[in-house]
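Why run this: before we spend reagent on co-expression, it is cheaper to look at a predicted model of the complex and decide which construct boundaries make sense. The entries below are exactly what would go into the expression plan.
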Amino acid sequence: MAEQDLDIASVAQLARLTLTREEAQLFQDQLAHVLEYVDKLREVDVSEVEAAAHAVPMFNFFREDEAHAWFTPVEALENAPHHAHGLFIVPKVVE
Amino acid sequence: MTPRDLPALTVGELQEVLRRREVSPQEALVALHERITEVDPEIGAYLSLDLEAALRMAETADLDLPLGGVPIAIKDNINVAGQPCTCASRMLRDYRSPYDATVITKLKKAGAIPFGKTNLDEFAMGSSTENSSVRTTLNPWDFSRVAGGSSGGSAAAVSANTAFAALGTDTGGSVRQPASLTGVVGMKPTYGRVSRFGLTAFASSLDQVGPLTKNVRDCALIMNALSGADPQDSTSLPVPVPDHTAQLGRDIRGLRLGVAKEHATTGIDPQVQRLVRAATDHFAALGAEIVGISLPHTDYSVAAYYVLATAEASANLARFDGVRYGYRADGPVGLLDHYERTRAEGFGREVKRRIILGTYVLSSGYYEAYYSRAQKIRELIRRDFARVFEQVDAVISPASPVPAFKTGERDSDPLQMYLADIFTIPANLTGICGLSIPCGFAESPDGVPLPVGLQLLGPALDEARLLQIAYAYERTTEWHRQRPPLSARKEFAA
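The model came back. Tokens follow.
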């Protein structure tokens, strides 16, 4: 497919990840190389193949819908970078 | 037996001295801790140690349980309540687990004592621990070389006798490859055999937790403790768990071992090739039948893997948004800036590289060409193995095409690093089980012996049979008894 139109800046934006100029250049080169290699997947005829899940197919595996003890609010906030009054504090979202 | 001798024991041997009350679990822990203090500063297998918490658990250890009183080191991407779980990332530098992963709950139920969190490539992405944000774990056999990865800390600890056994995780070979490079036993269970609840997800359709041990019996003992369905993991398999030790010692005469013609690729170190061939001959001498097989889609597995694994990783790592836990950038200007800088400052280079690749292959216009196609090739690889396992009981190959490589030798060329996963990746793609056992030593150009691992792959849920085959090899060879001459080196220095 040799789609070397990998636009690092727009992909980084999709991934919510700021890259330095140096990183962007490095990844551009390295990932172009990786994608070129991945192109070998094109050699295979997959027209008759369904996508795979895993070795032991299983579906609709449910557990009982029962309430059980889990984190208290205090525990849930223990690792929060910013919290106050039992709430996560986040940057302003609406203007 | 003096306390200094304790860390060299296997899990089985430790249990014997514990049950005979020759040693208390506390004494074993203190002896292990001393050994770690002595040799780990150079090796760097551990990221954190909490001796006090472990000693508290040891007080009430029930020695009659299957792993009663046995300390086990845990890869630092598995949650142990009250302990850090950094994934060797800046992103989780200050994180403390509020809960136990199911594998930890199960280990504790079996009497084991989780002790020490081990180094890894950041978020388990890598084959050398060079992607750890903390440091590179060095190979106990040769400090100029890597211990492999991503479970390099766990492997190095077992190899250096600074752990009796350890847990690792294997997404593309991350238990088997470091086991191979450090001369220990490492197993990747069948997908779904072991719960992933509490493991920090990298690629959810590929990840499995597995043991790293000094011998095959220890591996079987730990598999007994880890295995089984978990209501918290809907991909864990609701099937009975056999006693993995039951078949150890049984004859392997008549069992069929496959050697794939596609595995004779160029790029295998000649010494590795020679040792694996010798191990194959050894199996033949034990009465196994060696069968030539074909796995025609082998050559596509690495490409398919790096599409699927990065795609899943990009989705899984989206959770690191600097809100509920983990690192958060200071003083953001608005929400977007908050996300972008938090992630830019929190993630290391390889993780960023994989997020970018994964985001790209999932993005509109490329999904069919990459992700969907890779899934279909995964199915073809699965069919290859399904066909092969109608003919043979296990497939035999190297675990890694090369022995431990020098630090810094490969970290500038990601593709080169990825290609070395050729033998291990298919097991993750297809969900089957596999393990690596020591099968000899290559000699480095400096004349240092470097361990080489033999990989056995078996059909889904056939771990007990794989362990039987591995045990037959182990009990008639001495490779697994070899340990790096660390203490001797220490004494010479003194």
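The CA atoms of residues 42 and 56 of chain A lie 27 Å apart. Helices of chain A lie at 8-14, 21-38, 73-77. Bring this page to Monday's planning discussion.
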